[in-house]
Design brief:
The complex is a heterodimer of chains A (180) and B (245). By secondary structure, chain A is an alpha+beta fold. In chain A, 54% of the residues lie in helices and 17% in strands. The longest helix of chain B has 14 residues. Chain B is globular and about 60 Å long. Classes of the chains: A alpha+beta (180), B alpha/beta (245).
Chain lengths: 180, 245
């Protein structure tokens, strides 16, 4: 409450202030400690500890808003590209053409990533408790519901879907049983 | 090797980069331009100006790049949920391209032929600074003193300071045994007892977070609002780029 009032009296925050605010709240709740052994680009393993309080919240919250707004295949493809992209940054290739190329794809995917995420912080843990998008949600409770959906999703369609996906598994199995 | 007239040094005002500053002046008989960036490491930057002046530097650049850091590097990286090796959030890695960019820009502004950094020959940062610099300015020269000199201990650094009249403040309190890097995204700790991977980090090492045991017994809730994958509001308070801090 008090923070909102203070904010109205001061001025708008901005990216650096977003991170500063998140760091404060996360740090007070014991969030963001990491202890790892990592593989350096120059060849050896190194042990390091890191405190990334605000970033830890950002990672969780961002995945949450994507979960409700991103198409499945876009999300999966992004996840496949992510380790390559991470390695480029880690190794020092931010200004390299391949990072710029990946950034274009990543940024394009984000056009629909609009909405709100509700986060709970408790003793070192970050939990997502709710997410919504008034403009870009792909979540349709009519389709997903266990209740009567009024024909939104035809369960009979699933049989054909499964049969066609099973066809090549059956062929592979038949081949195996033909071999001595 | 053509004579070097000017080099831009990534300068923090600390012991290592002050030794580097003098070493560059002595070894290359050149002018040093200092570049100091506020990336949110939580340190005063003006002492770096005074120290550089006391060491004969006349072109001193000090930048608050926190906004650019988060808007142009951190936020774009988080759009991909970026994690290295399953856990590391790349807090140090993502700051280096910005420093490289500024060093190259300052070199152009001051007609310096080279840039210099204080990263050792054993780490990733030397690679990050230098690949970034070469990508942005193929003609730039890079000097990495740690790969050239033989000052490989704190004692040798202190000895160099005495021999070359580099003022060293005796900081009050114990010097941290860890090698640390800090910016608005993270703090990193290496060295000390951490060099034994089986040894647990002491609780008094951590600076920005309380331990989970010390955290409040009541949960804290917050609402985070996104536009095109970037955070624009916390708890309903909108955030635009007109920051008065």
């Amino acid at each position: 409450m008090r923070r909102a009032i203070l904010s109205l009296l001061t001025v708008h925050l901005c990216p650096a202030t977003v991170l500063t605010e998140l760091n404060k709240i996360a740090g007070a709740n014991g969030i963001g400690r990491l202890d790892i052994v990592e593989n350096r680009y120059v060849g050896m393993k190194a042990r390091g500890c890191y405190e990334t309080p605000g970033g830890t919240i950002m990672l969780k919250a961002h995945r949450a808003i994507e979960s409700i707004t991103l198409d499945r295949e876009v999300a999966h493809l992004k996840d496949e590209l992510m380790p390559k992209y991470a390695k480029l940054i880690y190794n020092g290739y931010w200004w390299a053409p391949e990072r710029v190329m990946l950034q274009t794809a990543i940024d394009q995917s984000q056009d629909v990533v609009n909405g709100d995420v509700r986060i709970k912080l408790y003793k070192g843990g970050v939990s997502v408790v709710g997410r919504k998008s008034d403009t870009d949600s792909l979540f349709d409770s009519n389709i997903a519901t266990f209740d009567d959906d009024g024909g939104a999703y035809n369960q009979a369609d699933a049989e054909g879907f499964i049969k066609l996906n099973a066809l090549r598994l059956k062929m592979a199995s038949l081949r195996q049983s033909r071999q001595p | 090797m053509p004579k070097l007239n000017k080099v831009v040094l990534a300068y923090s005002g600390g012991l290592d980069t002050s030794v580097i500053l003098r070493w560059l002046q002595e070894t290359y008989d050149c002018e040093v331009v200092t570049y100091t960036a506020d990336l949110g490491q939580g340190e005063e930057l003006e002492p770096a100006r005074k120290k550089a002046e006391s060491m004969g530097v006349s072109e001193i650049f000090i930048d608050d790049v926190r906004e650019e850091f988060v808007a142009d590097f951190v936020f774009p990286m988080f759009r991909c949920n970026t994690v290295y090796e399953g856990e590391y959030l790349l807090g140090t890695s993502i700051a280096r391209p910005l420093i490289a960019k500024r060093l190259v820009e300052v070199a152009a502004e001051t007609q310096s032929e080279a840039i210099a950094h204080g990263a050792t020959g054993k780490g990733n940062d030397q690679v990050r600074f230098e690949l970034g610099a070469y990508a942005l300015d193929p003609a730039i020269r890079v000097i990495a003193p740690w790969r050239e000199w033989d000052l490989n201990s704190r004692d040798k650094l202190m000895e160099y300071c005495e021999m070359h009249n580099i003022p060293v403040e005796m900081k009050r309190g114990k010097k941290s045994p860890f090698s640390m890097d800090a910016n608005l995204l993270h703090i990193s700790y290496e060295g000390g007892n951490l060099e034994d991977p089986w040894s647990e980090a002491e609780d008094d090492m951590w600076r920005w977070t309380v331990s989970p045991e010390e955290a409040p017994d009541q949960p804290t809730y917050m609402t985070i609002s996104y536009e095109k994958g970037d955070i624009v509001a916390i708890d309903g308070t909108p955030m635009s780029c007109h920051c008065v801090n």
